[in-house]
TrEMBL record, chain A:
Keyword annotations: Membrane, Transmembrane, Transmembrane helix
Pfam families recorded: DUF979
Organism: Companilactobacillus bobalius DSM 19674
Domain of life per record: Bacteria
Transmembrane spans: 6-23, 57-75, 95-113, 119-139, 160-181, 187-211, 286-304
Protein name stated in the entry: Permease
UniProtKB/TrEMBL annotation, chain B:
Keyword Nucleotide-binding: no
Record's keyword annotation contains DNA repair: no
Entry-linked InterPro entries: DUF969 (IPR010374)
Protein name: Pyroglutamyl-peptidase I
Membrane spanning stretches: 6-36, 57-76, 159-178, 190-208
Enzyme class, spelled out: hydrolase
Source organism (scientific name): Companilactobacillus bobalius
Length: 305, 218
């Protein structure tokens, strides 16, 4: 059995828990968009579980359909059953720090399998997730039915935001096929010559900050700025892709720290904490964000080349 | 017109900036880019479908959700709150730093706590305010500053350590995007090169928070 076949088993498992989410979304009478939400998870479940046997054209059409559902506001998380606080308090007292044990197992096993076996990181995550789930069920004495509900609740709670990263990575495929990187590098190299390592690193990191500030989302900025600037100006010049990715993304996070567009991080606390200064959180963050940006530019320059 | 190919980038930037529906914006950007590059609609849809299938690894983090659901319903958050609330006799800055360390470690283990809601508001902010007002009462401005710094500390810890977890959506997105763009960056290597920033962020923030204490000492 080769790695890709093993990986396919895990994709089927993901499809399965998405179908759980679909069933419970259809059954959620309180959700005004239950049909659309149920369909969304069903389509995702189908793509993950049996997408391998479908023509790519059909998958493309399904994704466009999901886009339309989302545009028409027909995908909503709905009202999820909250964790029973009494039961949670009781078992927190009983289990204490053991509750963190499954997560530790997951993190360590994923790394061990990826580094010391030929299975690779992705299969490692799959195997470690299953082991961690079994351990969690044993120490908390959870039965299959409760696990089913815990699973569907978690999947439904992430909503469309859960598939956004995959969709953004897909955008990279389209950009590559269309030659977007070539166009941007030609346009920018009129002003900044490609080939100067330091200039390329500065351009990429600063662009990640600015575009994240405008868009309010570092993942989206990463997909477009890496295709448009990161690849032609840094990676194609010999930069290590893992270094460029890791530090490019965190450069984007510096942008997140400085923009009111990232409402979840910078405006939500203002409301939660009943602060007087709307920009108070950003004011505390920008000195650190700018310092870290400089550090990242230096690190990327020395580590990538 | 070659520059028309950049329409996808324009759509993404405007769509996100104006807070339009994110999924629809990304799909529209993909379709528009393919079409203006001269592909037929069936060709674009086929590439879109194939690209989505090839990038399924980004969604591998879904596999970790059942386990997290189980420990959550058995009091994961309550256990963390119980642990943190035992802290005593620390200055505001030290409370922030201890929380920062906890946040970075749990993030590295893939435990995505909703810090602002679960910890900053009910726990860290009141603890820091109590600690800072030992010598003299806080002014309104100082109260606001403590709240802001508490929220900021959560963001620092969260952002710069989440990529230490190999199955995080960020790491998988980076690895898969690089693959889409024709280069190899394994998740394990991305984690490796995320370690320096997690450590540096901790050190710089820890210094920043310790200096924060000075204003409450006189």
């Amino acid at each position: 059995m080769n790695v890709n076949n093993i990986l396919e088993i895990f994709y089927v498992l993901i499809g399965l828990i998405m179908v759980f989410a679909s069933i419970e979304s259809f059954r959620d009478k309180d959700n005004s968009a239950r049909i659309g939400t149920g369909l969304f998870w069903l389509i995702m479940g189908i793509i993950f579980a049996v997408g391998k046997y479908l023509p790519n054209l059909v998958i493309g059409l399904l994704i466009v359909f999901v886009g339309v559902l989302s545009l028409l506001k027909q995908i909503k998380v709905g009202k999820l059953k909250e964790v029973n606080k009494e039961i949670a308090e009781k078992s927190a007292k009983r289990l204490g720090a053991w509750l963190f044990f499954p997560s530790v197992v997951l993190a360590i096993f994923s790394i061990l399998i990826s580094q010391f076996t030929k299975l690779g990181g992705q299969v490692g995550i799959g195997i470690a997730s299953v082991i961690a789930l079994i351990i969690a069920m044993i120490i908390s004495k959870t039965d299959a039915k409760t696990t089913y509900h815990d699973s569907e609740r978690m999947v439904r709670s992430v909503g469309t935001a859960g598939v956004l990263p995959q969709l953004l990575a897909t955008l990279g495929v389209i950009f590559t096929a269309s030659g977007v990187g070539d166009v941007t590098s030609k346009a920018i190299s009129g002003v900044f010559p490609a080939g100067n390592h330091l200039l390329g690193v500065v351009l990429y990191c600063v662009a990640m900050v600015i575009f994240t500030m405008v868009m309010g989302n570092a993942f989206a900025a990463f997909a477009v700025i890496t295709a448009g600037i990161g690849i032609p100006f840094v990676v194609a010049q010999g930069g290590n892709p893992a270094v460029v990715a890791a530090l490019g993304m965190t450069s984007g996070y510096c942008g997140t720290l400085m923009t009111p567009m990232a409402a979840n991080f910078n405006s939500l606390p203002v409301a939660l904490l009943e602060m007087k200064d709307n920009l108070g959180v950003i004011k505390q963050q920008y000195p650190i964000a700018l310092t870290l940006l400089v550090v990242q530019i230096i690190l990327m320059y020395f580590l990538a080349f | 017109m070659e520059y028309l190919k950049l329409i996808g980038i324009v759509i993404i930037i405007l769509g996100f900036a104006f807070k339009l529906d994110t999924i629809a914006v990304v799909v529209a950007a993909a379709l528009a880019t393919g079409l203006v590059s001269g592909m037929s609609i069936t060709h674009v849809l086929t590439i879109l479908g194939k690209g989505f299938m090839d990038n399924r690894m980004v969604s591998l983090f879904f596999l970790t959700l059942p386990m997290i659901g189980v420990v959550e319903s058995h009091g994961l958050k309550q256990a963390a709150v119980n642990g943190i609330s035992k802290i005593k006799n620390l200055s505001a800055g030290k409370i922030f730093n201890l929380y920062l360390a906890i946040r970075e470690i749990t993030d590295a283990m893939g435990i995505a706590l909703s810090g602002q809601v679960q910890f900053i508001r009910p726990l860290i902010n009141p603890m820091a305010q109590a600690a800072a007002s030992v010598k003299k009462p806080l002014t309104d401005k100082q109260v606001d500053l403590i709240k802001a710094r508490a929220a900021a500390t959560d963001n620092f810890g969260n952002f710069f350590s989440q990529n230490l977890f190999i199955a995080s959506s960020g790491v998988l997105l980076m690895s898969s995007t690089m693959k889409s763009l024709g280069y190899t960056a394994t998740p394990a290597n991305i984690v490796l090169y995320s370690i320096p920033m997690a450590v540096i962020t901790f050190l710089i923030t820890a210094y920043y928070n310790r200096r924060f204490d000075k204003q409450f000492e006189v």
